[in-house]
Amino acid sequence: ESLKIGFLATLSGPPAVLGIQMRDGFLLGVKEAGGKLGGLDTEVLVVDDELKPDGALTKVRGLLERDKVDMMAGVVFSNVMMAVYKPIVRSETIFVGANAGPSPIAGKACSPYFFTTSYQNDQNHEAMGKHAEDAGYKRMIVMAPNYQAGKDSIAGFKRHFKGEIVDEIYTKLGQLDFSSELTKIAAAKPDAVFVFMPGGMGVNLVKQYAQAGLAGNVPFLSAFTVDETTLPATKDTAVGLLAGAQWAPDLDNAANKAFVASFEEEYGYAPSLYAAQGYDAARLIDGALKKAGGKEDKAALMAALKEAPFESVRGDFSFNTNHFPIQDVYVVKAVKREDGKFVTQTVEKVFDDKVDAYVGECRMN
Amino acid sequence: MSVLLEVEGLEASYGAARVLFGMSFAIDAGEVVTLMGRNGMGKTTTIRAVMGMIAADAGEVRFEGQSLTGAPSYRIAQAGLGLVPEGRQIFPTLTVEENLVATGANRFGAAPCWTLERVYGFFPRLRERRANMGNQLSGGEQQMLAIGRALMTNPKLLILDEATEGLAPLIRREIWECLARLKREGQSILVVDKNVDALESLADRHVVVEKGRVVWTGSSAELKADASVRERYLSV
Amino acid sequence: MTEPILRLQDVHKAYGALKVTDHVNLDVRPGEIHAVIGPNGAGKTTLIGQISGALAVDGGTITFDGQDVTAKPMHLRARAGLSRSFQITEILPEFTARENVALALQARQGHSFRFIRNVARDRALNEGAERWLGELGLAHRADTPAGILSHGEKRALELAISLATEPKLLLLDEPMAGTGREETDRLVEVLTGLKGRYAMLLVEHDMGAVFALADRISVLVYGRIIATGTPEEIRESAEVREAYLGEEGAA
Amino acid sequence: MTLMTGSTSSHRPSRTDLAAVVVFAAFALLPAAAAAMGDTFIVFFTIRVMVFAIAAVSLSLILGQGAMVSFGHAAYLGLGAYAVGILAEHGIWDVTVSLPVVLLTCGLFAAITGAISLKTRGVYFIMITLAFGQMAYYTATSLSAYGGDDGLTMWGRTEVFGFAPLGDRTTFYYVVLACLLGVYLLARMIVASRFGRVLKGAKQSEMRLRAVGIDPYPYRLAAYVIAGMMAGLAGALLANAAEFVSPAYMSWHRSGELIVMVVLGGLGSLLGAIVGAASFLVLEELLSHITEHWRLLFGPFLILVVLFGRGGITGLLGKGGRND
Amino acid sequence: MSATLLAVQTLNGLQLGILLFLIAAGLTLVFGVMDCINLAHGVQYMLGAYLAVAAYALTGSFWGALVLALIGALGLGLLLELLVFRHLYDRDHLDQVLATFGVIMFLNEGVKVVWGAAPLSLPMPDLLSGSIVLMDGLLYPVYRIALIGAGLGVALLLYVLVSRTRAGMLVRAGATNPAMVGALGVNIRRLFMLVFGFGTMLAGFAGILAAPILVVEPGMGDNLLILAFVVIVIGGIGSIRGAFLAALIVGLVDTLGRGFATDIAKMVLSPSAANDVGPAIASMLIYVLMAGVLFFRPTGLFPARSG
Ligand SMILES: Nc1ncnc2c1ncn2[C@@H]1O[C@H](COP(=O)(O)OP(=O)(O)OP(=O)(O)O)[C@@H](O)[C@H]1O
Ligand SMILES: Nc1ncnc2c1ncn2[C@@H]1O[C@H](COP(=O)(O)OP(=O)(O)OP(=O)(O)O)[C@@H](O)[C@H]1O
Ligand SMILES: [Mg+2]
Ligand SMILES: [Mg+2]
Q1: What values do phi and psi take at A38, rounded to 5?
Q2: What is the set of domains in chain B, with CATH numbers?
Q3: What is the pLDDT of residues D174-198, one digit of tens each?
Q4: What's its membrane topology (chain D) (predicted)?
């Protein structure tokens, strides 16, 4: 008996690094299981979605109909997730997400076939909102690219931050130069800023933030901006900046220590939360298959998945009724490790067993 | 007198359509030769093939004894051929003055060499319009510019393809006079022009082309005398 | 006296300090061939451009067929019966010679918002086109893409297109330039044949053709008309000789 | 350059006619063949190919015939898709409403942007159409009510009087094929008509057209609007095929790909546009199965097509036939 | 909106403009003057940055990296010219689009294969890493001043090269009629090759200079390519002066739009609507600008080439 998994990830264009991390994490999980998840010979068909929703959909159809995969996994971006979600769950194929967690899927449109080892999109932003509130910041500027995830992030941040938002800045997607925004920040002198600037935008912003002399003066809170995918480029300029994350390489549990060590050994670079999520996805599938005794009984497998029978690299991990994780969320900080690599490090735990905001809308139990 | 340009058995085509079927003629140093023939007979094509602007299928082109067959056209021009092309082909995005100096050269140290001043002296109209873009010139002005541009390369052999098209009678006459003067200075010239009468007094020899072949060659006197050639090939 | 078909009053235009047409007054009578001659750069092509509508005038009025067309765009003037040929050949190089002329015929028939019938099979257009090509000695070239015709043939095609619009007034900008002896003779013959049918404004440096064809000649020098008259009068004028003709007029 | 389909005066079926019959016969037979092989995916995939072929034909109509290189053509794809998707979001599924709305929206957008863009030529035209495409794109991304950048999922397909024939894949397939055939034939007819001759003439010399009494502007604009509506139809079909609508349909990358499809197939040939769209998508699909770095192969392939095949793929295939 | 803020934003805009010009400069030469639609300009810019990162790893010095990467970019340009571009000059613009699209695909992927997908960076040279106080709480990096200097230098160099030298004349002439230039005794192929190589070097130069302030990642040139075209088209194809001014205008409009669009929208709309509309407008502002300019001046601000 064998197992075929279709793994969809963005592997081209500037955000390819996220997809590559996620894929590498997943493949590491498969490899550690000796190439046999749940004891089944596992074949992973990795497919590049090119960040084109309609193209991704075609590829998913191919995986479902032609390659007849048993399961689907992966997906970095929400817009791709939304495009492929319907055909996957309609075909009653189990999907184990490893990053994107858009709110409709957590809420109204939730499905018994969908599981994710990452988070609901808002979570890490919420953590920073809470952190800002706890830190006593009264006036803040928030900044995100002008697209749906950006707006969601700011909504998430505001959920727990009750102080004044002096300015909400929406930048262009893929923006290069932030001098205009930095000037605004310098002029408004907020207590702190919160930004969501994934990928290259984050690199540009972090560098320019430091160059404009703001780094030491206005605390920099972020999500998906300062992590192991961008630190190789920002290096020292990012050290000390804060981010919200549900995982960091230094989380103190055995599974994580083993993961980080073997990941760096295998690929030669530091894993980010994308890699951790990918890895957990493979481990989750492994655990559930073992528990259900194979892939044949789908109902049993789904029931098994729901129980999250695996050691997450996050330690404390369980599924909510909408199949999104209930997990702890931290504030992490960028640091330079002794070996010269730049990584994130936990500073404090903001939420214990955080539940996402949309689970109430999901009519599944 | 030494042979300057020799064309032997030149064949050329556009795509599948053969246009030249073994053109052969020669020009001696200091000679003025014309290519004559009706529209579409291959005069321009001959010139293009000699200049290396289209590839010849067969045949030889020699200049001062050196073979130029297959050479790129800049080499051929550098060997001393200066072209006034059909249809002017001045550079539209260059000013008049730039058109003249851009490709200007005096490769052989010609004694009374053509300079900007001399060209302007010859075509005062160009001096007036020196700062205008090439495509802002009138048709005749463009023609003057094309001639001036070729002269500025100080060639050993000047090739004029319909160089007086669209020029006013006065200017046209001045050009004939100028060519005569150049000839006296020893300049070799190959002319294509429909003004057979003017050419008869200017040129030493005439080459009549029909359907891509040379059908008649001879001196001006012979041409004048041979009414049948004039009638058959030139409809004069 | 009959009303002129074309009348220019005070037409002028300048590029910076250069007065290309300087208060030109000129008329063309029905059926007449009126030649405009003058040195290079005198403004003849500019004048044709202004009459045809390709260039705007700085001032003055152009009256065509009783209507003030000064402000009308080029295509409307063409539709009203003003057709021009170009000094620098302006043909459609990818079209065959036949298609070039057929398009002119199609334009003459009126609007072309017709999506249904295959125009290549339109007998009326094709035959009409071939007739004009025949008149100009291009019948054997009907299927040749215009772009690869020889220079002289292109010039003839240029004229065929203009003629095919069957205008009331034909503006000819150096139709003989670049054509060989034989073709020039043929053109003179064709134009002579059309004389009386169309009025023509002829710009030409080939004095043989001008004197053979023109009923009246105007001489344009530096944008100004310095003389208008019959061929004989012009030939006699010392001023014209000095400015333009040189010996040739006398010949 | 080829001298245009349909400009020959012979009544015999030309090479183009034969090729068209072959191409469409292949499309028509494909579902049966797929069923025989038990491959249902290829039917779905080919639907996508045909949808893009419609868009490519529409672009080819203005680009190949009229030299109007629209770098914003994907906007119509998106506009058509959004028209269907937004109507669906409000519970309106019927084709009798959605099709007219699609055509009207795209026609209107084309008329307005075309009226402005057609004042320019060449690269300026390319860039001004890009500008309008980008405006449409950014507008779509900021439509928070309809999912913004995340897109809009359609929980169904367009219906005809309450029936949902598109739910059946084979039916959907033939509907798309019929649309493609219709668009192709329409475009061919336009190209061969008097209108088409004006369009092709205007590409070569506007001055010449004006001089014989034709103002190219309204013809260009009409062609631009027709092409926009055709692409809108493709967009509506795309929305139905994906059951999802996203601003990504309108991004400039997509417009660029459409241009590449048309040029790859062979400029000036409508059938070439279909061939180009198909080869582009099929090659992408095949090569990406060979290696993750399939672009290392695809890039040089495109270069080689340009260097060795004047006139794109159809030029390569039809060498000697039509190309000299 | 205080006056200082406006002044600082204006400066930011001008500086972004100069950066844009720097990026567009190579393209002005190859596309504007030589008339070859070079979509690969963006990847040439990217390669400049990557070469610099690689060279920095070798030499450990920014200046060493600059020199090596420039040489590398030139070599790359000459190679590309030899393999691809020289066959494209006399081809239809759309053939150029297709072929250079292929070049983009190949090089973007190639970079990923060689250097990986993760973003990289190039440290700022120590000499230029200081900053000056621009406004209370805001520093202005000396490096950006150096960038402005480099932009002005390139602008001047290009202007002189194109409109004052014989090579410039020949390139302009060759763009419209290469056969004729050849027939007048100039080896236009070699000239084009050199100019193309120089254009690639300029693209690489921009990439190298941008690397310390912007991210170095695969595909980093794609969006910039579009911006570069926007700049050139607004300026008028072929005009260096036009490109320079257009770059400044685009930089200014973009920066001020980002700086003030939402605030202005808030004057007429509710804050949440303004947050929807403002950023959308700011994003499309340069396209609105381009459409507007072309509507009133269909060949750009300073049309240099007609016909
Ligand atoms: N680019 C081309 N492609 C195909 N055929 C061409 C091309 N140029 C010229 N021809 C053909 O080659 C033949 C010879 O043309 P060529 O221009 O040499 O004639 P010519 O003697 O110079 O005539 P003219 O006096 O009209 O200038 C003509 O039949 C012409 O149609
Ligand atoms: N766009 C322009 N800008 C500046 N000057 C121009 C422009 N167009 C034409 N000219 C100038 O206007 C003058 C008249 O040009 P025009 O073409 O009317 O002359 P022409 O009488 O037809 O001459 P030819 O007999 O040589 O054809 C010329 O000196 C020309 O240089
Ligand atoms: Mg000739
Ligand atoms: Mg003239």
Answers
A1: 60, 25
A2: 1-80+157-171+185-236 (3.40.50.300), 89-155 (no CATH)
A3: 999 999 999 999 999 999 999 999 9
A4: Multi-pass membrane protein
